[in-house]
């Protein structure tokens, strides 16, 4: 059946966005979506590998600089999540809490997801070994702070 014609069920075929016909009988609504997938794992291992090859020129210093940048972004992301969870804990002081989005490229990119009107899903992966209990605890604390964030 052609667009705009009524079918057997009595409903009109929906128009596609950008068609000159528009949405007959009702205003059109444009929905814009953004999907950000960020893998934050592995930065600790790369630092350990870089430190073993620190004396060499070339790849070692490049990897070391990348590891420093990743860890700095993770540090700022933790500060942003902490500030947003504090804002949720004290709604009266929400205006006075500074959220440091601009201190990292990562947090600038995630600003709408973290504190905007978006949905945020965070997967926290834990290690099954008892040797990583401290790291697992830190990961769970990080995830619980992120769970406290309520977007608009």
Q: Helical region count? A: 5
Q: Strand tally, please? A: 0
Structural shape: globular
Rg result: 23 Å
* Backbone structural class: mainly alpha
Give the oligomeric state of the chains in this entry, treating copies of one chain as homo and distinct chains as hetero.
single chain
- Measured by DSSP, the beta-strand proportion falls in under 5%
The rounded distance between the terminal residues' Cα atoms is 41 Å
Mean pLDDT: 76
Low-confidence stretches: none
Could you please describe the fold and organization of this structure?
This protein is mainly α and 152 residues long. The chain is 43% helix and 0% strand. The longest helix has 31 residues. It is globular and about 65 Å long.
């Amino acid at each position: 059946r052609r667009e705009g014609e009524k079918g057997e069920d009595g409903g009109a075929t929906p128009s596609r966005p950008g068609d000159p016909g528009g949405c007959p009988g009702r205003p059109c609504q444009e929905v814009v979506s953004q999907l950000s997938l960020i893998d934050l794992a592995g930065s600790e291992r790369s630092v350990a590998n870089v430190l073993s090859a620190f004396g060499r020129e070339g790849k070692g210093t490049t990897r070391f600089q990348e590891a420093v940048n990743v860890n700095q972004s993770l540090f700022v992301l933790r500060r942003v999540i902490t500030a947003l969870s504090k804002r949720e804990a004290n709604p009266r002081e929400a205006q006075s809490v500074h959220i440091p989005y601009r201190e990292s490229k990562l947090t600038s990119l995630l600003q709408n997801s973290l504190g905007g009107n978006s949905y945020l899903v965070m997967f926290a992966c834990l290690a099954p070994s008892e040797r990583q209990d401290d790291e697992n605890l830190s990961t769970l604390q990080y995830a619980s702070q992120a769970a406290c964030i309520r977007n608009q």
